What we know:
The complex is a heterodimer.
Chain A: H1 13-35, H2 42-49, H3 53-59, H4 63-88, H5 94-111, H6 113-120, H7 129-139, H8 141-146, H9 160-179, H10 190-213
Helix pairs in contact in A: 1-2, 1-4, 1-6, 4-5, 4-6, 4-7, 5-6, 5-10, 6-9, 9-10
Chain B: H1 10-36, H2 39-46, H3 50-56, H4 60-84, H5 91-108, H6 110-123, H7 125-145, H8 156-173, H9 184-192
Helix pairs in contact in B: 1-2, 1-4, 1-6, 4-5, 4-6, 4-7, 5-6, 5-9, 6-7, 6-8, 7-8
Amino acid sequence: MDRLPRGRHGLSPEFVARNQRDRLIAALIITLADVGYQKTTVSMIGRRAAVSKSDFYKHFDSKDECFLAAYDFAVGRIRSAAVDACSAVRSADWATRVRVGVVALLTLLAEEPALAAIVLAEGLRAGRGIYDRYQAAVESFVPLLREGAPDGPGGQPVPPATDEAVVGGVASLLSRRVIAGESADLTGLLPDVLEFVLTPHLGTEGARRIISAG
Amino acid sequence: MSATRPQLPQEFVAAHKRRRMIDAMAALCAEQGYEATKIADVVRRAHVARKTLYDNFSGKEELFLTAFDTILADAETEVAEACDAIDPADWVARTEAGLRTLLEIVAAHPDAARLALVEAPAATPASAARYEAAIDGFIARLREAAPPGPGRPATLEEALVGGTVWIVQRQVRHGGAANAPNLLPELTEFVISPYRSVGKR
């Protein structure tokens, strides 16, 4: 989060405003990870973003509004990490795409614990309003998982509810680790998460083959 | 009222009043959420004196936490009874019986289900901690009951409980508690399928 140089910088007011808004969002995410939602104040966010309190209120009506914007931003980052990774191997088979997506997801969460915290831990405790966003974010991974997915090992299609439960289960597992302060170790969950996600479609043996093929 | 009518025992009345306050808390949370619910609303809904509430609970949060504990304990008792009625060797049937009972409880007590599954995780830090502890309890139980198997991921039960709760929670959140029992076949399959022995397709 670089501060803009003081004085003349030749940047348009729109860009500076846009930039201020992004800085405030980043500052909220970091502050939240440090001190939690309750203790985060507008002054703390402003100080970290090097944005005055009055400028804060040009962008957001309240801490809550900034929080919602930050939540959406964080969800967008996490989701696009997985989506981009999957599209980079678009022509590969389903299991490979899933593996690449899960790797990208766990890597980003491990490397950016503040993103993991707002989306999977602290955010959920910020009141009931945020939960709809959390739910929508988690559910948005279901079509990604089902795209091009093979039928179950017995030849029957895997019901949508199974993949919904799988995605919800993974979110819950990751959330538990983040709440426990173990974000940095999330990539260690890769084999477990992959087996959980692949098994309904490939069976246990098929899933384990993919995992050990690495 | 007849003069000969026996008085209800004191403890019975007291327990009944506690129950009414807990039920009122659940109903009000379902209608307006924890945050908007005031002690005055609970007192009015439960038909108890304000003093009675404060004789029993230190305030809104303690009443809420007690409601959560009560709902959970009742559900656990019922689920355990349903499981114990089935032959311990038949793990699949026991799991299905437990899930069925849980879903039936959700359908029969939608307000309580909402308090425990939707409000508790976000109401207060203490309620969030209790919610997490309850989830831990379910994970431990599944781990204990599940058949042993080679090389199964250590996190499997966490993901299975998390996924099951996720589906039920979503159903309750969207006002579909009454239809929760319809989830039984898919949830049962979801929970038991990872334990099917490797090699048996």
